[in-house]
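Encoded backbone
================
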Amino acid sequence: YICEMDARVMWDNKTGHSRGYGFVLFCSQQALDRFNTAVVSPIYYVMFTLLCLFLIRKSSIWHLLQSGDDPYVA
């Protein structure tokens, strides 16, 4: 159970669409810590892992390994 006091989404006045962010006010530090542990940490872990995989795939090392050449031999 996580108690939240208030949640606000930021809206664009011209388009009427969400700006993509908002604010949440929690009732205590413990509630915020519980939310971070349960929701935010796993999301950041997945995003970081996907970013690392993407960067490795785009790097020159990946292309060398796929070509069969030894990257340590000059």
